[in-house]
């Protein structure tokens, strides 16, 4: 009798504990989902602008040396705690943009860590006659060439969230010339005129560490013909800022009732 009573008691207690165990698992899963959701609310806001700059500006920028995170940390330390005794001025790598020509301001782009996005694109459409291949295949319509440059970025956030590692990917296409050609078609050997487009394509990528909220100037390799004729170049200015929703809520404070 005693053993039967004990068994019933154990079964009763387990019956009470089972729902609690399930509820605990559900709560843990909800907490995990909430943490994952909050982690997804960290992204980088990128603002990009394109400038046309003079030759001296471009060459000075192109000669600026690569800086490591340690270099950037040292510059920040000197900025926050300048030495009491004034040191001789070193050659400055800073190049102001006030006197340069702003061509384009891109939209603010939100990029999740580990992702990439297009931040700037400048292009123009050029149409020309059908190519020989198009004519032989009986395709109608003109050739369409998109001449210009695009800039994509891939972004990683450092563990301390002080730096951004940005991979810049520049891709360009330039039409160098168009040549008219005669193409013989069909059994009747009908002669038609087509055009062959000669294009120059280029891709270039580079990686830089940028402080959160810092400004970075990127000299582009692409140089449109009109820009070359004026002895000028293209430079992209990018400002990436880490956005963390929890911190933004703290800065905004409680919502008034």
Can you walk through the features of this model?
Strands 1, 2, 3, 8 and 9 form a 5-stranded antiparallel β-sheet that branches. A 4-stranded antiparallel β-sheet has the order 4-5-6-7. With 257 residues, it is of the alpha+beta class. It has 6 helices and 9 strands. The chain is elongated, with a radius of gyration of 30 Å. Strand 5 and strand 6 form a beta hairpin. The protein folds into 2 domains: 39 residues; 197 residues, no CATH class.
- Count of strand segments: 9
Total of helices: 6
Q: Order of SSEs, N→C?
A: HEHHEEEHEEEEHEH
Helix content: 25-40%
Descriptors:
257 residues; alpha+beta; 2 domains; five-stranded antiparallel sheet; four-stranded antiparallel sheet; 6 helices; 30% helix; 43% strand; elongated; disordered N terminus
In brief:
The chain has 257 residues and is α+β, with helices and mostly antiparallel strands. The protein is 30% helix and 43% strand.
Topology, pairings included?
Elements: H1 2-39, E1 42-54, H2 55-62, H3 69-80, E2 101-105, E3 109-111, E4 116-128, H4 132-136, E5 143-157, E6 163-185, E7 190-211, E8 216-219, H5 225-229, E9 232-244, H6 245-252
Antiparallel strand pairs: 1-2, 1-3, 1-9, 4-5, 5-6, 6-7, 8-9
